[in-house]
Protein 1
Amino acid sequence: MAIAGEAGELAAELQWSDGATSNERVQSDPELRERVAYEMADLLIYLARLADVTGIDAIDAAFEKLAINEQRFPKKL
């Protein structure tokens, strides 16, 4: 599916950075920030189209999944 390809393109932009380094790079490099933004946009467009075609409310599904994850992985105090 196109979603997998676009996710790969997004990953390729940041593949050699850890989370903190990725954030710093994206914040400090306007060209990288634009490329990452466009790859994220491509993913969002494909996901929105898939949600439309399947009749799935992706926002509701995301909230449900967050609730499930909170139960599966409770915060440690």
Protein 2
Amino acid sequence: MLVAALQMGPAAPTISETAERIIKLVDKAGEAGVKLAVLPELALTPYFAAKIQEDLTPFVSPEDNQAAIEAISDRSAHYGMALVLPFAEQNNVGLYNSMAFIDDQGERVGTFRKMHIPGQLEPKPDTPITILQKRYFLPGDLGFSVHDLGAAKVGGLICYDRRFPESYRSLSNNGAEIIAASFNTPVMPGGTLAAARNASKLSMTAGAYYTGTTVIAAGKAGREGGVTFIGRSCVIGPDGTILAVAKTQGDEVVMAEVDLENQAKIRERWSFATNRRPDDYVMREPA
């Protein structure tokens, strides 16, 4: 099966303009025969959680988001392609950093809400960038659910979630055949692009390896709002091998063939499900 990470460069000023770019990527992937594609975190908007926003409407408008999701879903359905599409989900409870799961018929069949919320409530005065996700987003309340998209059973992780080993294990235990990892990762002050990319790669290749699960990783790339984002979207095999990786810092379709039958054989050989010791994965005093 051909799958793809749909990497995005800096977002356009409006949701509708960014959606038009996404549709072009969907067309390119669909024409190539891709059956499952994943987009970056907050794919429809700029990364707005790095500064104080007086008005969130341009980023979270339910009407604009719904129109964009429907237009993109309709196009992916034309190719029989399933899609994982992250967005800022505003509802009557609050704001969530979410992803929509769209099956190969264009139907939205599920939602994942980012579980681990990083950052601060207020900007740090001595740094040029502060991650303010705690200011804007509620912690996810839907758990690590897995959704049948026709092409495969898929679970999601959003950015910081991919740093937690428990996230991959939870999705694997819940039946995920493929994990969609979406991120907007900036190069933080004092860091380097190379180091940030390496940390991202390490977390995801390890997650794939210790669960025997394919990972499709899609990120924002390039400079947006004066901040460099790491990009380097990729597809990772169930043995932790990188099968394909982005070559640019802009919009790009990163495609690879995945073999779920071979993945099942890898899982059987490693016997993680059989040999786990969940009752002993707790802190205890030494005997």
Protein 3
Amino acid sequence: MTLHDIVGLLAGFLTTTAFIPQVRHVWRTKSAKDISLGMYLIFVCGVALWLVYGIWIDAWPVIAANAVTLLLSGAVLVMKLRFDR
């Protein structure tokens, strides 16, 4: 494992785990009224593209981080759509 792999994994870990408190909060309160739908739509699309990019260049730190981030941010987006009905 190279130094840039370690830096990539650490960056991915930190930015990915940053979504866990948001997912927990929305799930517990069953409310996403203060979350921007537009921001999460754009963000989820951007993360999906980062995942595709990581797959194309075979960069496993990019793939791993963005796969998990896509799941977490996608969960917030789904809860936003579900709870705001």
